[in-house]
Amino acid sequence: MTKLTLNQQLILNINIMKLYKNSKGNLVTEQQINIMDSYSIETIEDISGKLKIIEHYRGFSGEPFKYFEYFLSPNENKNDIIQYYQNQSLSSGIIIYLNKQTSFDFEMWDWEDYSKTGTLISKGKIIYDNQKREIFYCVIDQQTNEIAYNPKPRKHYYGNSNDPNNLKLDFKYELDSQTNQIKVSIDDDNETSGVIHTMKQDYFIEVFGQNFWDSHPYYHSLLPLLPISSVI
Predict the structure, then answer these.
(1) 49-76 residue pLDDT tens
(2) What is the number of other CB atoms lying within 10 angstroms of the CB of residue 166?
(3) Which end of the chain has less Cβ packing within 10 Å, N or C?
């Protein structure tokens, strides 16, 4: 009996669709990626609509390479997935997402980044909203298993219908070694407010208003990681 590859098994177990995107994340056709130096292929489960695999290709400088992102199901073996993708042509490694937790429309995953030899490089946590936008990201210290502060953990706010167009805020959390307190600073990514530089909390409230700050308590501190409300 012929042994099926992992991809063949995946196709048999779920109905899938593929999305092809250029380096800017815009949809293109399968034919168009054949002439691109950089692209990604997303594998989506048709039934659930959930993202399963992302294959990234980079060929614009030096040796071309691929790296993969894989969302692990509870019935799948992590080591089998790592081994399969590290053996793929041009593979430079894989990020595995596992241990999914949900709260309202948000998903939190542990992530583990493996080299092409299967060595764990780094790990952390990430949270997505129902539009697959990153809401939270951090690295976990491999020695202490605690949240690392280099790079700084971050939360993202994408605005709503009451906010200015293209509002996107990045909230970053830094541990003060002298006071052992966590401080928050904020970037207005698209400079919607006219402020270019990183804002401290007091100045942010001055610019955006106390009501805006009070309306979004999720961003006031690093914890909780998973939102405890459908609106953040």
Answers:
(1) 889 999 999 997 778 999 999 999 999 9
(2) 11
(3) N
pLDDT at res. 2: 43
Cβ atoms 23, 32 nearer than 8 A: no
Measured distance CA(49)–CA(69) in Å, rounded: 17
What are the DSSP calls for 89-143, one per residue? TTEEEEEEEEEEEEETTEEEEEEEEEETTS-EEEEEEEEE-TT--EEEEEEB-TT
Task: Write the CA distances from 140 to 100, 153, 211, 217, 220, integer angstroms.
Answer: 16, 10, 33, 24, 21
Count CB-CB contacts under 10 A for residue 47: 9
Residue span of the structural domain in which 217 resides:
149-222
Q: Tell me if 230 is assigned to some domain.
A: no
Last residue of a domain, one of 107, 141, 175: 141
Residue 11, pLDDT > 70, answer no
Considering the domain architecture, whether residues 202 and 112 belong to the same structural domain is answered as: no
**198-232 burial: b if 16+ Cβ within 10 Å, else e:** ebeeeebbeebeeeebeeeebbeebeebbbeeeeb
Beta carbons of 161 and 180 less than 8 angstroms apart = no
d(CA 153, CA 137): 6
Would you say how long the chain is, in residues?
Answer: 232
Kindly indicate the confidence band of residue 12, based on its pLDDT and cuts at 50, 70 and 90: very low
Q: Which of 141, 167, 193 is the last residue of a domain?
A: 141
pTM: 0.88
| Structure-token match 């953040």, residue found | 232
